[in-house]
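agent> Task received from the user: take the single chain below, predict its 3D structure, and emit C-alpha cells. No templates, no multimer pairing.
agent> Plan: (1) validate residues, (2) run structure prediction, (3) serialize to C-alpha cells, (4) report one or two observations.
agent> Step 1 OK, no nonstandard residues flagged.
tool_call: predict_structure(input=
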Amino acid sequence: MKKRLLWAAMILIIGIGIYNLNDRASFKKVHTLPYDVQKNVDADLRLQQIYRKDYSYIVFHSPGMVEHGMQVEGSTVKMLLNVSEEKAEHEIQQYSYKLKTSEEHDTIAVFLDGQLIPFDNVVVGN
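)
tool_result: status=success, residues=126
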C-alpha cells in the first residue's frame, strides 16, 4: 500500500513539474477579442500586439487562411504564421491570438511564411 501511495505521489509531482514547464509560454487562437483590446485594433495595419498584464494579444490581418505555431528558443518566442489558400476576392480577415510568456522571454519574433516581419503597432494596456 505504501509503495502505491509513493508511486502516486511521484507521478503527481512529475505531472505538476511538466505542467509548469509547459505553462511558461503558450500561444492560442482566439475567436473574439475583449472589447478593450478590440478597440485598440487598427484594421489598416497587418500585424499588431496589444499587451496586457501577463499576456498579450497578437492581431494579424490577411487575405488568406492562416495557420499558426510557436517555438521557444532560449529567451525568444517565435510565432510562426503561414498563409495559404489566398481568396480571389482578397477580403481581409482578422486572425487573433493570445500569447502568454514568462519573464525569461524578452523577445517576440513573428515569422510569416518563414520571413521575419515587424509589428506595425504595439499597444501597452492594463
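agent> Step 4: summary for the user.
The two ends are 51 Å apart (CA to CA).
agent> Done.
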